[in-house]
Design goal:
With 99 residues, the protein is an alpha+beta fold. 14% of the residues lie in helices and 33% in strands. Strands 1, 2, 3, 4, 5 and 6 form a 6-stranded antiparallel β-sheet that branches.
Length: 99
């Protein structure tokens, strides 16, 4: 998470479409500080950009949610970041326990 950077603003012409898509289809990642029961930051992670070199993300810090999403990326990685955050229960299981 600490190496994720803002690549650029979402273009004005596609802002409403990106916000609608984020509202319907996103992954919610909550970041907690040690000893706290409420998340310090929450990222709403959307899909990839058309060129697959960025990811749409919306940040919420505390109780304040940003009005504008951003296109984010990692400098040392090609592709979108949404595949790094998987939320399917079966993906978290360890299959080697039966070996």
């Amino acid at each position: 998470m600490k190496r994720i950077r803002v690549k650029q603003d979402v273009p004005e012409i596609s802002l409403n479409n990106v916000l609608t898509t984020l509202a319907v289809r996103h992954k919610k990642v909550e970041i907690f500080l040690k000893g706290e029961s409420k998340p310090h930051k929450t990222w709403f992670i959307g899909g990839a950009t058309n060129d697959h070199m960025g990811t749409y993300m919306l940040l919420k810090v505390g109780d304040k949610k940003s009005d504008v999403p951003y296109i984010t990326h990692k400098q040392d990685m090609y592709g979108s970041l949404d595949i790094r955050f998987y939320t399917n229960f079966h993906d978290w299981r360890f299959t080697g326990v039966f070996n």
